[in-house]
Write a structure and sequence with these properties.
alpha/beta, 3-stranded mixed sheet, about 20% strand, globular
């Protein structure tokens, strides 16, 4: 029995990973204690997704463990030690705005939790591959110092700049910039994962994501750009754009495409590998462009307001250069375009809204 341990298994990337590797014939052990509900409120709860996984996947076993609970994590890894071949760590406090509210919670989840998982892997399954879902926020606001040009619906980089054709690569410094506390805690986890590869010789991979998105995202205002935007579009709720006239650019990668990259890495892992991984020039948009496309696909007007208050440390323009990963794993390819991503999110959001309405009617009829 080959076991894949997946943290944050109720979340967007975790649940996609669980399904993907289950289809590859692995036994999947999920770890998720629905901290997303604590971070962002009931609408962001991942409980619905965990129940879906337990119902659909015969080879899925769930554990409601906090990744900061060293004793519980070590007991689980020791119990499964001889069978663990893969650990994919997607659990996190994911919002730089939220991190400022509870810095200790943010750091202990992102940094200490990662350290506990790395040490549990080294102690009980040292031959396993360890994959960490990092973030482009490890670069802080350094990208904002690039020579950017304001266009009618977006910011972009000057055509003469080396990053123009493909985006930002891994040579960008992570020093001397404002990261936000979230970015700092993810830097710590990112470097730890690299170091366990380089110092201990473990097979570790770091994927610095742009905007990770897809139909299983429990979007909230502070995290889940496209999922929350679609939710506002469907419900008529006013959406707030923070700064930069809504022209800030994000590259978006579908959860399936990211997890497919995890699979390719797991088949031929390296030690201490680091990859920028996002939508690249293949799939990116400004907030305004995302709103216009959502309006078109939803068939209704979108309500939004512009706030002059940009989020601290936020990127004006981010597009990932993914050529390093493509060079190492040339068989990996994108499957999803931006239009396909938003179409899927709309369909999934509508279905979840119907399910919630049905549950509400059922509770009212029993009352």
């Amino acid at each position: 029995m080959s076991v894949a341990i997946i943290t944050g298994s109720g979340g967007l990337i975790g649940s996609e990973t669980a399904e993907f590797f289950h289809e590859k014939g692995m036994e999947v052990v999920g770890i998720d204690n629905d901290m997303r509900k604590y971070f962002f409120g009931g609408e962001a709860s991942t409980d619905w997704n965990v129940k879906r996984l337990e119902k659909r996947l015969k080879g899925y076993t769930h554990f409601t463990i906090d990744i900061r609970d060293e004793a519980s994590i070590f007991r689980l890894f020791e119990r499964l030690a001889n069978h663990i071949s893969l650990v994919i760590h997607t659990a996190a406090q994911p919002s730089h705005d939220w991190a400022a509210k509870e810095p200790f919670t943010d750091f202990t989840v992102n940094a200490n939790g990662t350290l506990i998982l790395l040490e549990a892997t080294r102690k009980f399954a040292p031959d396993a591959t360890f994959i960490f879902t990092s973030t482009n926020k490890v670069y802080g606001d350094t990208p904002n110092g690039l020579p950017l040009v304001e266009l009618p619906t977006r910011w972009d980089i000057e055509t003469s700049h080396p990053f123009h054709e493909y985006g930002i690569d891994e040579t960008m410094s992570i020093d001397q910039s404002k990261h936000s506390l979230f970015g700092a805690s993810k830097v710590a986890a990112d470097i730890l994962t690299q170091e366990y590869g380089r110092y201990f010789g473990m097979k570790t991979g770091v994927f610095r994501g742009g905007c990770l998105t897809g139909p299983a995202h429990s979007g909230a205002e502070l995290h889940g750009f496209l999922a929350y935007l679609v939710k506002c579009g469907l419900t008529g709720k006013e959406y707030t754009i923070f700064g930069y006239q809504g022209k800030q650019v994000r590259d978006n990668i579908h959860s399936h495409d990211l997890v497919s990259a995890f699979w390719h890495f797991s088949q031929s892992p390296r030690s201490g590998a680091v990859y920028n991984m996002g939508g690249s020039r293949h799939c990116n948009c400004s907030v305004l462009e995302a709103i216009r496309l959502t309006e078109e696909l939803c068939g209704r007007d979108f309500r939004y307001r512009l706030s002059e208050d940009a989020r601290s440390g936020d990127h004006i323009w981010w597009i990932s250069d993914i050529r390093k990963f493509q060079n190492d794993y040339p068989q990996w390819k994108y499957r999803y375009s931006l239009r396909e991503i938003i179409t899927e999110i709309i369909g999934a959001t509508v279905e979840r809204m119907k399910e919630r309405d049905h549950e509400t009617i059922g509770r009212d009829s029993r009352a």
